[in-house]
């Protein structure tokens, strides 16, 4: 009796790695398996080497004129020498061994070599659904050099135990031999080998029709062996196989499904497809639960196929076990490799782990079909039960993952609700804002700045503050001659000296496109407010109050508010809103209100409600929106070609720079007001932004949203933010569950965080500020929780390594 090793590689790929590899060891004298765990790292070089080997092998087969049991199309590899091909074979072997001898797989490697004896017979079954893994020459693993009675086989991850049959009374082995399309190959030698078998009855179907083949499979006496020789192929990544039964017809296994199931029920235990590229055939037959198969993993030369059949049947019929008979026949093919390279790489076993391989002698009496009470049948029964029980840990892990993600999401959102994450979120938002692409200046605006140099003008001799009455009067006169659409005076001024400048008084009264600022009082902040300049009616006044976050950073735009009755400034609208409304009036767009929110055209400026997004501890007085700064090299270059007071008064500007634009007049000198923005840094005071530029940014935000379709920045609804954070929490848990090796988990989490930041950046450009910091915390915290759970489970498995019923 042999030992059985089942190596499960059903989760992962060579490109992504196998984070959870299990090995079950069924010892001959024990009805319960031992189970070991490990992992295999990603190795993209192996798929590349194998594809190169495969193309080169096919190219050499054409060049050397081998008679193959498949039609090979012209490939991309030409004129390859045999020396280079042998070197490629060695490189592939070295790479496979380096992969299987890696540190992450060492636990399984060590445990198997500890418990197995080189003198004992061992069946090693690789469970996988990956076509490339099936094609790899697993026998090149140096494990098989140390264990001469071990042979590798392939299996699908899911299988069922074949029902036992009644005892067979006949004393001969029945073989159904299908000799299909023989174009270019010699199938008579196959027939001669089968006819010479002792105590065997072979029925030959030579290039049969489908109906004849189907009818033969339904034979009531049943068959022990199904043999096919001829042309065959596999398509769709090794998932589907075709056999060419005659010159005109090809069949797939599903087309013979019912007939094959009947044959298996009546005793069919072995299928041999001595034809090319048979892994697709084996995959389809495995779904029908046929116990044993032998196929060729690549195109096979005619002579190699015949020699393998001869060597295998000779060893098997003489009493050798099934697996060792295949190993002996495969190794004997090495004698042909001077002429037919890599012949010994081609044969491969496909097995059902829940079925005991037959021997030739047992077949003659069918003793294998009368299940003994001994350990093999018992152990396989336990195997099926054990694998069924493995379903429950999967569900348990899924429940753990869901529970962990929900708990972590709840904790993170709770911390956010308490304002513990606000500072981090605002800093992350500032960083994303600074990364946004340039948008260009707003050509609808012009900023007239009053600098320190402008104080030297003769017109400024009588100034009080930033601008004298004379300079203001001449500035307004100059600008009005160029026909601007609106003028905003962003300077707090004392009453003009009207006896000296009566024209300024009249201009302030009657120039209907001139707007000035005031400041609404706020008793809670000890702000008494500032009155507007006299003579300007309330309809042309706008408040200049700014909403400032901690750190004196302006991130929000105050549109309008309810003015306290004691305030010296009574305008309910911000200066930026007044200027924008006057500009849009010429575009025939008038303001409306929808559920208390300002609507201009099709754009609704949704006010920030209680605890919006990152703002959990913020003053939301009035109607505020997020300020969508316009970035062009520097946000201070919001307007096209900013000019100074001197340039306007000395006629150094062109009329088209002013015509039909909004003109903002403000101070940009050493004593004027400056503010931090998301583009600033507390360590760099020179990056503060003048108040007049912030006013320009606000005006531009409104006009760009209404006229250009530039989306205002907004938050997701609260339920949307919860789902967003929970989604990333689940991602963190899944990654931690899938990638058990720390280096790959750390790398994957790092890449995932990068993807998360990229998505948040992309959505911000599209107008959505989604939670970045809460999502990152949820991702890492859930991943950590799953890692801790997995570690505890692994520790428990180490304490109890055996799987018992």
Give a structural overview:
- It is a single chain.
- 38% of the residues lie in helices and 17% in strands.
- It is α/β, with parallel strands linked by helices and 805 residues long.
- The protein has four domains: 3-156; 173-389, Rossmann fold, CATH 3.40.50.1460; 397-420 and 716-799, no CATH class; 438-714, no CATH class.
- The relative contact order is 0.09.
Question: Could you list some keywords that capture this structure?
Answer:
single chain, Rossmann fold, 4 domains, eleven-stranded mixed beta sheet, six-stranded parallel beta sheet, 29 strands, 38% helix, 17% strand, disordered C terminus
SSE arrangement:
Layout lengths: L2 E6 L9 E9 L7 E7 L4 H19 L18 H19 L5 H10 L6 E6 L3 H5 L7 H4 L3 E6 L17 E7 L8 H8 L4 E7 L3 H8 L7 E5 L1 E5 L4 E5 L5 E3 L4 H9 L4 E5 L4 H8 L5 E5 L5 H16 L4 H11 L14 E5 L8 H6 L9 H15 L1 H27 L4 H14 L9 E6 L18 H13 L4 E5 L11 H9 L3 E5 L22 E3 L12 E5 L14 H11 L5 E4 L2 E4 L2 E3 L17 E4 L16 E2 H5 L12 E6 L6 E2 L13 E2 H17 L6 E2 L2 H21 L3 H24 L2 E2 L3 H27 L6
Parallel strand pairs: 1-4, 4-5, 5-14, 6-7, 6-8, 8-12, 12-13, 15-24, 15-25, 16-17, 16-25, 17-18, 28-29
Antiparallel strand pairs: 1-2, 2-3, 9-10, 10-11, 13-14, 19-23, 20-21, 21-22, 26-27
